[in-house]
Design goal:
This protein is mainly alpha-helical. It has a single domain, classed as Lysozyme (Orthogonal Bundle). It has helices spanning 15-20, 54-65, 85-90, 105-119, 125-130. The chain is globular.
Length: 135
């Protein structure tokens, strides 16, 4: 089994950061630990507003957490999609649970759709590439 690595960047703060392609800070202050981005300008993520099939989210979760929707490994990211708590809050996750791992699969997917709308697949860059959602 693969180890779980944090792969989701924090929610971008403001249009200027998104337009500049600046990485958002993760829990350690860098841009999404495990994403391969440690600072400086990066690619601008294209937000996605079309609903994504559950099977696609399952593929991303398989990559992020070995499909464990209740994942709490101590890495600062939670749930099947390894969502950082500030991102969870910003995307409306608190209406379901205090953290992603405490919410159900359907609820995590609903919040992930909002993260995807705001950040695009870059939020899950490594796994999105692995399953063919990013070049």
């Amino acid at each position: 089994m693969r180890g779980i690595k944090p792969r989701i960047a924090g929610l971008l703060c403001g249009a200027a950061l998104a337009l500049a392609g600046s990485p958002a800070p993760g829990p350690g202050g860098d841009a999404g630990a495990g994403s391969g981005r440690t600072g400086g300008p990066g690619p601008v993520s294209v937000p996605v507003s079309v609903p994504v099939a559950d099977a696609t989210w399952d593929q991303v979760a398989d990559c992020e957490s070995d499909g464990d929707w209740a994942a709490d490994t101590g890495n600062g990211y939670y749930g099947g999609l390894q969502i950082w708590p500030p991102t969870w809050r910003e995307a409306g996750g608190l209406r379901y649970a205090s953290r992603p791992d405490r919410a159900g699969r359907r609820q995590q997917i609903t919040v992930a759709q909002e993260i995807l709308r705001q950040q695009g697949w870059q939020a899950w860059a490594e796994c999105a590439r692995e399953v063919g959602l990013l070049p």
